[in-house]
UniProtKB/TrEMBL annotation:
The keyword Manganese does not apply. InterPro entries: SRAP, SRAP-like. Gene3D superfamilies: SOS response associated peptidase-like. Belongs to the SOS response-associated peptidase family. Its EC number is 3.4.-.-. GO terms for biological process: protein-DNA covalent cross-linking repair; proteolysis. Coiled coil: none annotated. This is Abasic site processing protein.
Amino acid sequence: MCGRYVRRTDKQKIAEWFKAKNDTANLPMPDADYNIAPTTHQPIIRQSKETNEREMVLARWGLVPFFTKELSDIKGLTTINARSETIATAKTWREPMKKRRCIIPASAFYEWPKEGKPPKQPYAIEVSSGNLFAFAGLWDAWKDKDGHWLQSFAIVTTDANELMSRIHPRMPVILHARDYDRWLDREETERLPLDLLKPYESEEMEMYEANPKVGNFRNNGPEMLQKALDAAESGTLPI
C-alpha cells in the first residue's frame, strides 16, 4: 500500500509541470509537504468537464464514494488505495474508474517493510531523475445531509517491481507522462486504460532509508528525506 508520500514543489510549479490550465491562486496549500498523510487535502490533476483541459483541485486523501450515507461509514485507511486488480469491478471503484480518473503529483513516497518486527525502518522511493511524477488516482464527490460537497481521491496500487519487492509486495502505480491524457480522458468509459496499471520500471527508480520519525505525521520537514536535505543544502534540489 501507499500510506505516506511527499510533495516538495509549490502549486504554481505543479500546475506548470502538469499543464493545469485553471487558476490555482486560491488553493490553500503549503509550498511543500514532506509527510503527506491520509485525510489531508492534497492537489490532484483531472480533466475539466467543461473545457476538457487539465485542472488542479484540492481533494481529501481517502476516497468517499458518492453513495456513502455518513462519513463515519468510511473506516480507517480502507479507501486511501485502490487495488488495480479489482478497480473495474468493486463497488467503491468501478464508477470512478469509468468517469473520474485523476493523477496525483508526488516527489517521493514512503514504505515500510512488510515483514519483520517493529520498529521497522521506513524507506523513501522516488524516480531517478528527481523530477515530479504522478500516481494514477481515482476521485469522487460526496454530498452530506446539509448539502456540502466533499471531493476525495485514492491512489491506485499494483504488484511491486523488482526494487520495491525487496521490502513490500505492493507499490503505487506511477504513470509515464505520455500516458497522462489517456488516463485522464473522461470520454473514454468503455475501453478502460487498465493496461497502464502496471509496475514502474525498477531501473528508473531509487530507494533509500528515510527518517524513522516519518511514522508520526506531525513530523514534517525536509529532514524526513535526508537525501533531499543534502540536496537543498547544496542548491541542487530538483522539483
